[in-house]
Specification:
The chain has one domain (6-201). 64% of the residues lie in helices and 10% in strands. It is built from 5 helices and 6 strands, in the order βααααβαββββ. The protein has helices at 16-48, 57-106, 117-154, 159-199, 218-223; strands at 6-8, 204-208, 227-229, 234-236, 239-241, 252-261. The longest helix is centred in the N-terminal third of the chain and has 50 residues, at 57-106.
Length: 262
């Protein structure tokens, strides 16, 4: 006789609206930073042009001023990182709890959610990862901009050429922010959902492949339908992973109700 299939709840999937909201928050600040840098550089070029003095004093002054401006924008993103990380963690947790609550209600159960130590640890881990990534958006962008500006000055390029290079860098930063919003929404949902389910005594899940994407991971596709422990995940491609944990992974899982078979 085949073993009975475990009875499961419906998966809690990442909220696309939260991802879009997260991306808009990042995009707004990236756009303001970019516009501020372009405005300042335009003023500097018009004020002194590319005819730098022989001893490099004007170039050094320009670098110093640029670094002061970069410092101010890094401070803006550091503050944003602290506030936005908490907001996204709160919203993802609320979404995960709502999905789990609806699932158990559909099976005739009621649950009381409490903030256990493990839940608090997972919550703080989600916030900490967001903080580091949001800060890194400004760090990488500002470092690249300084390099572009200094190379432009050294080679005697005009403002138009530099502006095009800055627009290209702006595009790169926006795309990275979009990836962060998508990836971290998926990962935070996975982390907080698993922690909440474990707190309720749910210890297993059934892997569900999203069946989306142009290039699905073969191991993730093959894992669909496999029961695994929420505390460990599945050993795929040489490492232990949870659904939604890897970059661009849209897999999820159906939590197994303990003590029931379908």
């Amino acid at each position: 006789m085949p073993s009975p299939k475990p009875k499961t709840l419906r998966p809690v999937r990442p909220n696309a609206g939260l991802q879009a909201w997260y991306r808009r928050q990042l995009d707004k600040h990236i756009r303001e930073m970019h516009q501020s840098l372009v405005y300042w550089l335009s003023a500097e070029y018009k004020a002194q042009g590319l005819a730098m003095d022989a001893d490099g004093g004007a170039t050094l002054a320009m670098r110093g001023s640029l670094r002061k401006l970069a410092h101010r924008w890094q401070w803006v993103f550091d503050k944003l990182a602290d506030s936005l990380s908490r907001r996204i963690a709160e919203r993802v947790l609320s979404h995960a709890d709502a999905g789990l609550r609806a699932g158990v209600k559909g099976e005739g159960f009621t649950v009381k959610f409490t903030m256990t130590t493990d839940m608090q640890n997972a919550y703080q881990a989600v916030i900490g990862e967001q903080v580091g990534l949001i800060k890194s958006i400004a760090e990488q962008h500002l470092t690249e901009v300084e390099g572009l500006v200094m190379r432009s000055v050294a080679r005697g390029r005009d403002l138009g050429t530099l502006t095009k290079e800055l627009e290209a860098r702006y595009g790169v930063t926006r795309r990275r922010a979009a990836l962060i919003a998508r990836d971290q929404n998926n990962k935070a949902t996975s982390t907080l959902t698993a922690a909440r389910q474990k707190a309720l005594g749910i210890t297993e899940g059934v892997w569900k492949h999203s069946l989306g994407g142009k290039h699905p991971r073969p191991a993730h596709l093959k894992a669909s339908g496999t029961t695994f422990e929420l505390a460990k995940g599945l050993f795929l491609d040489g490492k232990w992973v949870m659904p939604g944990e890897e970059i661009n992974c849209r897999c999820t899982w159906a939590p197994v109700i303990p003590g029931f078979d379908a």
